[in-house]
Each structure stands twice: as C-alpha cells, then as structure tokens.
Amino acid sequence: MSTTTMMRALRLTEWETEPVVTAVPVPEPHGSEVLVEVAAAGLCRTDLHIMSSPAGAYPYALPFTLGHESAGRVAALGPEASGFDVGDPVVVYARWGCGTCWQCANGRDNACVRTRHGPHGAGLGRDGGLAEYLLVPSARYLVPAPGLDPVRAAPLADAALTSYHAVKLSLPQLHSKSTVVVIGVGGLGHMAVQVLKAITPARIVAVDVRDAALEMARVAGADVRLSAEGLTASDVRAETDPNGASVVLDFVGNGTTLALAAGSVAQGGDLTFVGRGGGELRVAPGLIPYETTVRMPTWGTVAELAEVVALATDGKIHSEAQVYELDDAVSAYGKLRQGEVLGRAVVLPASQRLTPVTPA
Ligand SMILES: [Zn+2]
Ligand SMILES: [Zn+2]
C-alpha cells in the first residue's frame, strides 16, 4: 500500500489517566491473522481498573487500544487464515492464549499458563475493539454470529461468557431444589440471571443496591430481589433457605459482598468470586461452611462463547445495552464508574468513521 489508511481508536496512553481517541493505522492481517471491522464494543469495569491503576499493576505495555467485547464483520484475512469469509458476522473471543500450552490445548485459553502474566488479549495489553478495526491473531478466536445485532452480540464476549462459565462450573448444584444468589446485577450479573433461567431450574435470588438493577433482575427472571442496603446473611437465609444458598455468585467482589457471600452459602455449596471489586475472601473453619467449594473463575472458553452465542440467537438471553459513540466513551466510562449504566454500555466505533485522516 502506498498510503496508510488511518482509523480512530480509544487508547490508553498513560497509567492512571483516561484513555484518548487517537488516529492509528489500520492494521494489515499477516499469516493466520484476521482483521475484523468492529460494529460494537462493550465497556467493562475491568477497563476502569486498568486505566486507574499505577504503572506495574498490570503486565501491559502502553499504549494499547481498550475494548475486550467486540462484534463486527470479517474485513480481511491473512494468507494462512481460513474458515471465514470477508463479510461474515462474528463475535471476538478476547482472552488470547499461547495456543500450545496444556490449558490452551484443552481449549482453556482463559487459563493459559504462558500468558498468565500478560498481555492477556484484546484490550488487555494488546490492541482491542474500541477502534474501527481489530486485528485478531487467529480465526479460532472468532465465533460466527449471523442474525445477531452487534450491539447485543458484543457483550456476549465477556459479560455473558464470564457469567455463563461461572454458572456452568456449578451446574451439579443447580437443580430444582436449590437456590442461587446473584450478588450484583450489573453488566455480568444481569446476564447471569438470564443464563441461570435459561439452563437451570434453580430458584434465583438477586441482590443489588440499585432499585433499577433489581427491576432488571425481575425482568430477567429472578424469583426474589433483595436490596443490598443493610442486607445481612441472615436476611438472605430468611428470604431464601435457612440452610443457605447452594450457590452464591458474587459479581461485585468487594469486602462487603464477599462477607455476605460467605455468610449466605450453604454447607457443601459453591461460593464463586467473579467480580474484581478489590475484596479479599478468607477461607478458614468458622468463616466458610465445611465442604464449600470456593472458585475464582476468569472468562470462559471459545466453545462456551459459541454456546452463549447460540443462547442469544435462540432469544434465551438478551443483553441490555446503552449505546454511545466512540467520542462519548470516556463519559460512558464515568457513568459506569458511578453505577449509572444499566446492563452494558456499548460503543459503536465505526459510526463516526475517520475519513479523511491526517496522521498524528
Ligand atoms: Zn470485562
Ligand atoms: Zn497457553
């Protein structure tokens, strides 16, 4: 190419600052890489943690483009990439593993031992989807998503996938006699309630501080809604099961919610710590019931993303979204930080396409 085509991207250029919209070259796919034209990209609380962290907290080199929930169309394929055609609608799996370690060989890129210390994938130390185009290292990270609105499809890549993976790990506990508590009905939690409704017969108890989130939980299928304001573990047990809940999924993960989770889980139950709210969970006799399984999952697998996309295609799960332009992404992050986003904030990176561009 004689001239470099430029695009707009929301990039983190310094630690402990807001990201900025910058003009960068559109990448060209080499080898097995695939270029995806991003139609929609979700904003996540993890992004807030990354941008507010000091240098060294994350094993990522700056600058890079944020965005780990992306949906769009295949724009170009590297000479060794196959399995997709230009124009195919896809959701991008963002947790990019090494591809060859024992975990990756078993399809568990989310537990890749070589990339454990990062970078972790799209928007996680490598350029992500908050840009007009996203370069994906391999077609194996693409899940076909025909017929899905990209705004609904993008949050499937993390909000739905991570909650689906967490639910699936506890499936043996989620039978018709069990109760599951979902703490935090935000981007992930509202998907978790729907996933639970779609694939398990368990009774669902949703907990959140926000009335609007509890209303969203009701619509999503939660059987009981509890305001987190002053809520104790005894209150949860009184409203659910005196023996405690078979499964507690904490999508907040701060000190208060983890204490509530530890006090609410039944003996022999599952306590799943998903939210990265900065809390710590102490595991010791007397603090957690005996025979309790504590899990700290991260992401899910590519196969699970395909299962999530199938649930969405069948209309069994539906991501609530508030839509923003790329220029408004920083203010949308501010709303997310304040708890003012219901469901997922989703950005449309290509809606203000950069033509023509003066390279920076
Ligand atoms: Zn995320
Ligand atoms: Zn690996």
Q: How is this structure best described in words?
A:
The chain is an alpha/beta fold and 360 residues long. It is 24% helix and 25% strand. The strands form 4 sheets. Strands 3, 5, 6, 9, 10, 17 and 18 form a 7-stranded mixed β-sheet that branches. β17, α10 and β18 form a beta-alpha-beta unit. The two termini are 19 Å apart. Bound molecules: zinc ion (2 copies). The site of one zinc ion (ZN) has 4 residues, from loops.
Quaternary assembly: single chain
Strand content: 25-35%
Portion of residues within helices: 10-25%
N-to-C series of helices and strands = EEEHEEEHEEEEHHEHEHEHEHEEHEHE
Low-confidence stretches: 355-360
Q: What is the average of the pLDDT values?
A: 94
Radius of gyration: 20 Å
Number of strands: 18
End-to-end span in angstroms?
A: 19 Å
- Main beta sheet: 7 strands, mixed
